[in-house]
């Protein structure tokens, strides 16, 4: 039953993607459906290996479509690609940690996959952020605030993205978004010049509003 569902999902993507290029909503639905089916398989306790393989093949096809749209300049596709690859990296990082603990090896070969996924994610998130995609800026700031394999923790870079996000939010009259990012800047480094400037911009914007 599940195998038939996966097969029909694959066929649906091939037909619809050919008919409508860069349908981001459709691609999002396909990624979500793939995740749900994978969760069902894994929850069974004894997942069908062939079904899992089919899901992997379908995910690769879907992500190829997303990347193609992103490489053609679609901002939402670039953001979707960045977020999806980042999520994959997080999953692989957890799997690598488990493997290292089980095998008692200090450096699992899975780590290379993690680095590649994170590097790809950063590439697409930066592509979207540099075209004024607010969510991409926020995602990059969070990423550089953390300590992910192959990326590392870079507070200064994170603060730069937070600052850019705040500036964009204020320009778009989305003060609450700006305030949210500013609170994270303060948590990261309240004494940093970028944080102080962001605070000044927020107060001056508030004064103009009054």
SSE layout and pairings?
Layout: H1 2-19, H2 24-43, H3 49-71, H4 75-103, H5 110-129, H6 134-145, H7 155-171, H8 175-189, H9 193-209
Helix pairs in contact: 1-2, 1-3, 2-3, 3-4, 4-5, 5-6, 6-7, 7-8, 7-9, 8-9
- How large is the count of helical segments? 9
The helix-strand sequence is HHHHHHHHH
State the major sheet: none
Class of secondary structure makeup: mainly alpha
End-to-end distance: 62 Å
Q: Which geometry do the CA atoms define?
A: globular
Average pLDDT over all residues: 83
Task: Supply Rg.
Answer: 20 Å
Uncertain parts? 1-20
- What percentage of residues falls in helices of 4 or more residues? over 70%
* Number of β-strand runs: 0
Note the beta-strand portion. Answer: under 5%
Structure description:
- The protein is mainly alpha-helical and 210 residues long.
- The protein has a domain at 1-72.
- It is 81% helix and 0% strand.
- It contains 9 helices and no strands.
- The chain starts with a helix and ends with a helix.
Quick structural gist:
The chain is mainly α. Helix content is 81%, strand content 0%.
Features:
single chain; 210 residues; mainly alpha; 9 helices; 0% strand; disordered N terminus
């Amino acid at each position: 039953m599940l195998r038939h569902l996966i097969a029909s999902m694959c066929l649906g993507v091939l037909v619809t993607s050919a008919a409508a290029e860069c349908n981001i909503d459709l691609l999002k639905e396909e990624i979500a459906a793939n995740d749900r089916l994978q969760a069902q398989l894994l929850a069974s306790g004894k997942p069908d290996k062939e079904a899992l393989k089919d899901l992997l093949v379908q995910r690769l096809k879907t992500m190829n479509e997303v990347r193609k749209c992103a490489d053609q300049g679609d901002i939402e596709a670039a953001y979707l690609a960045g977020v999806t690859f980042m999520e994959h990296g997080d999953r692989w990082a957890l799997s690598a940690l488990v493997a290292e603990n089980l095998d008692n090896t200090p450096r699992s070969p899975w780590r290379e996959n993690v680095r590649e996924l994170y590097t790809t994610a950063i590439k697409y998130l930066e592509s979207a952020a540099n075209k004024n995609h607010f969510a991409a800026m926020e995602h990059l700031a969070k990423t550089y605030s953390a300590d992910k394999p192959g990326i590392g923790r870079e507070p200064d870079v994170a603060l730069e993205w937070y600052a850019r996000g705040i500036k964009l939010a204020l320009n778009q009259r989305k003060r609450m978004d700006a305030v949210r990012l500013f609170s994270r800047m303060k948590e990261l480094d309240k004494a940093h010049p970028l944080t102080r400037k962001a605070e000044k911009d927020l107060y001056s914007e508030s004064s103009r509003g009054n």
